[in-house]
Design a protein that fits this description.
single chain, mainly alpha, 9 helices, 0% strand, disordered C terminus
């Protein structure tokens, strides 16, 4: 289950001191699920102000902390999280890679170019290739589904007018 706060809340609070951020990271990595949830909400409310701080913490050996950070980055749905989510596609933990993939998919088309650039720079990474494949495949399917949903009902519900381009009315394109 993904914890989401209203979208307008995740930009309403200023970033706190490094000491506060460090304390909250310790809570995020702890065994107490309530403390982790509280810390997760804290970071989510900080929004983009803490994205770089969180991305820097992805280097930790603690898989719980990495998972929580990727969860926050995915839930923020901000393009500034793309580098951290892409880096997490190469994590040793399957669950973290899955969460990063889901976060990138939710961000949609803005992830395509950075992901292609990362693939070009790291062609030997199996985990990265597998994650990128899932992202691209899902985005492609979503795009096709959106295109079909938007055009088919519109075309069936109204007769084509003279202003409608020939291709949309069903006429073949001119060559």
């Amino acid at each position: 289950m993904t914890t989401r706060l209203p979208a307008d809340e995740h930009h309403s609070h200023p970033a706190h001191s490094r000491e506060t951020l460090h304390t909250m990271v310790l809570d995020l990595a702890g065994k107490d699920v309530w403390c982790r949830e509280k810390a997760r909400h804290f970071f989510f409310r900080q929004g983009t102000a803490v994205v770089q701080y969180l991305i820097e913490r992805l280097e930790t050996e603690n898989p719980i902390l990495r998972w929580e950070i990727v969860r926050i980055l995915a839930d923020l749905r901000e393009t500034s999280t793309i580098p951290g989510l892409i880096a997490s596609l190469e994590d040793t933990n399957d669950n973290i890679r899955w969460l990063a993939t889901e976060g990138l998919i939710r961000l949609g088309p803005p992830v395509v170019l950075p992901l292609l650039e990362t693939l070009a720079a790291s062609p030997g990474s199996t985990e990265l290739r597998e994650g990128a494949y899932q992202v691209f495949l899902t985005l492609y399917k979503h795009q096709r589904a959106s295109r079909n949903i938007l055009t088919r009902p519109a075309l069936k519900s109204a007769p084509p007018s003279e202003q409608t381009p020939g291709m949309v009315r069903g006429n073949p394109p001119l060559r």
